[in-house]
Amino acid sequence: MGFESNDEYNEIMFLREITHTVNAFNDMADIVRLYSKKPETAEQRLANLLSEVMYEDSESV
Fold first, then answer.
1. Running DSSP on this structure, what letter comes out for residue 1?
2. What pLDDT digit, counting tens, does each position of 20-47 carry?
3. Cα separation of 27 and 7, whole Å?
4. pTM of the complete model
5. What is the C-alpha to C-alpha distance for residues 28 and 12, in angstroms, rounded to an integer?
6. Which one, of 59, 61, 32, lies nearest residue 45 by Cα?
7. Measured at the alpha carbon of residue 44, what is the angle toward residues 31 and 18, in degrees to the nearest 5?
8. Alpha carbon of 19 to those of 12, 14, 24, 35: distances in Å?
């Protein structure tokens, strides 16, 4: 990827991380709302979310 400047690169990387964090919070909020209606489904979604996080962490090592 070509960037015009270091500032542009930093902005893109910041937005990428913020977007990732916001998506994770939205996923967690969905799980909390679902829990009262379908606890088993919410538990499965939480397990899936945690396994994604663990997979991403293992990739960065």
1. -
2. 889 989 999 999 999 999 999 999 999 9
3. 30
4. 0.65
5. 25
6. 32
7. 45
8. 10, 9, 9, 24
